[in-house]
Amino acid sequence: MTPKIQPFGMLPDGTPVDRVSIVGGGLTANILTYGATVQDLRLDGVDHPLVLGAPVLKPYLGPMTYFGAIVGRFANRIANGKFSIGDETNHVPANWLGRHALHGGPVGTGQKVWKIGALSADSLRLDLTLPDGDMGFPGEMSVSARFFLGGDGDLAIDIQATTDAPSPCSFAHHGYFNLDGGADITNHLLWIDAQSYLPVDDDLIPTGEVADVAETPFDFRTARELESRRIDHNFCLSARQVPLRPVVELFSGESGIAMRVETTEPGLQIYDGGYIPKEGLPGLDDYRYGPFAGIAMETQSWPDAPNRPDFPSAILLPSETYSHQIRYRFQRNRRQVGWD
Predict the structure, then answer these.
(1) What is the pTM of this model?
(2) Which of 212, 176, 200 is nearest to 298 (CA)?
(3) CATH C-level class of 57-103+132-142+160-331
(4) Cα 40 from Cα 26, distance rounded (Å)
(5) What is the spatial order of strands in the sheet that 16-24 belongs to?
């Protein structure tokens, strides 16, 4: 099947945005060049989308910023919008509460138009170059994101980056998932392979403590319902990048669809969508997205790592290649969480 490239609108400065459709392994994915965004994801035989997305470009420029995007060059938060490498202090514009940097600043990779680097029926590679000093980060950084539908119900995303100067580097796919097309995901079952998490302050900045999940609302080592917890926290998966392994399972008893997330990354930010506006956001298939409409499971480095030498390092050196693998695996007709 020939991949489709369709116009999806224009940015205010006239830059065109395209939507690319790829098909394979029982999945169809629509991906925007704006933000390398998974705008829609469908599983054969299922009549609802698996992700939250907008039918037009405009919401992505406002209330649906980050929905489905590849965010960076440093995903998550940097306290006070500054960090030091050696003797040099760098400043990133404070786009979170006017005090901290979030997802690489106000015009991070999720707000830029990527170039199509390679395309086939079941795969797409998007490329982007971040200039030295972009959003206050040092070094020119080249990044690519490859989307591949080669398995049986599998969406693979591989992100690679290189830099010509030491720089923070952590990219994340910020997709929101809903496995049954319902109004919210509070009855989805969630399992997370994490023994600890990062407590945060009132600004959602890590306090520095690494806390045990036992006897807290963050203990998902045994699958349980999400409910309405307002989670927006990092789960500590490992002390460094490791080979690809399963870290999350999500299941809807309503649809019988199960989802497994595999990653190489040391951190997992779970955001349950509790702060999506009550008035709702315009979604696919005429859905209206309100609080808890979808869950984001962002594999990444630990938040504020550039300011925390005791956290896993997130500084990329010119001699290195950043390589981040993600696998989203879907199965139908399941009765409970727990992979075969």
Answers:
(1) 0.97
(2) 176
(3) mainly beta
(4) 14
(5) 4-10, 16-24, 27-32, 37-43
Its sign, for the CA torsion 80, 85, 89, 92, is negative
Write out the catalytic residue numbers.
174, 298
Sign of the torsion angle spanned by Cα atoms 26, 174, 134, 323: negative
CB-CB contact of 39 with 33 (8 Å): no
Whether the Cβ atoms of residue 88 and residue 138 lie closer than 8 Å to each other:
yes
Domain ranges of the chain: 57-103+132-142+160-331
Question: What does each of the 340 residues of the chain score in pLDDT, given as a tens digit?
Answer: 678 999 999 999 999 999 999 999 999 999 999 999 999 999 999 999 999 999 999 999 999 999 999 999 999 999 999 999 999 999 999 999 999 999 999 999 999 999 999 999 999 999 999 999 999 999 999 999 999 998 899 999 999 999 999 999 999 999 999 999 999 999 999 999 999 999 999 999 999 999 999 999 999 999 999 999 899 999 999 999 999 999 999 999 999 999 999 999 999 999 999 999 999 999 999 999 999 999 999 999 999 999 999 999 999 999 999 999 999 999 998 777 776 6
